[in-house]
Amino acid sequence: EKVAAARREEAMSVEAHMNSYIKRMMAEWEKELEAQPEDEKKTGEGKQALLQFRATQKSFLVLYQRIEEGTIADDIKAALWLMVRAMKERNYLHASEIYVRLAIGNAPWPIGVTSVGIHDRSAREKISFAMNGQAHIMNDEATRKFIHGFKRLLTWVQKTYPTDPSRCLNFNATRKDLDSLKSAEKRGEALQLAAAPHFLGKDGAVKAPSKWQDVLKHSGVNNKKE
Fold first, then answer.
1. Between 189 and 45, whose confidence is greater?
2. Concatenated DSSP letters for 89-142?
3. 26 pLDDT more than 80
4. Residue 116 — very low, low, confident or very high, per pLDDT cuts 50/70/90?
5. In the chain, alpha helices (H)
6. How far apart are CA 175 and CA 173, in angstroms?
7. Are 145 and 113 in contact (CB under 8 A)?
8. What contacts 50, CB < 8 A, 6 or more positions away?
9. Hey, which residues does 111 pair with through a beta bridge?
10. Counting beta carbons within 10 angstroms of the beta carbon of residue 24, is it exposed (0 to 12), middle (13 to 18) or buried (19 or more)?
């Protein structure tokens, strides 16, 4: 069911895709909390986890409304979209970097993304940049809350959908990331790591860019030169 939902999202518009993914993750987070034993719910950690979820859930009401009404700022939409893509690829470190740049508010963001199809996300998309000449986005209380809520969601998703520690933010800081990773490995779950940069040579063989030659060499991978 999760795989089917993820596939359906790939055919949606950026706005619908974001809305669907965020609501899907929030539903899974809520289900996890509800499934906790009563004794665990009553602990300080259990109560804190519930408060974190409820704060995130409340902050996202404004986000959902702005996405559905088309009133969310283009630069914020672009940043959140990039975070969603990174989270789905389990590249949590990259998602966190985007969050930090968005929170600081002094970086340009690509806007004008209109389609999410594999073939539509190409050079033909018109990309422009919105420089932060307006008031800082964090001066808007509602915006500040849902952006911080997105960071909390990112932390939960990293724990729930583990990946290689090199692609995580503060791996195992809560002592749960490692347990989740070990459990996923026991289940034989694919970690969905992105492929290393590569291209097809004239002979049809898969080759790595020249700057990766040393990386391959020191990793012990044979790489014949032409």
1. 45
2. TT-HHHHHHHHHHHHHT-S-EEE-----STTTSSTTS--EEE-S-SS-GGGSHH
3. yes
4. very low
5. 2-9, 14-34, 38-41, 44-69, 74-88, 92-104, 141-160, 177-186, 213-219
6. 5
7. no
8. 33, 41
9. 128
10. middle
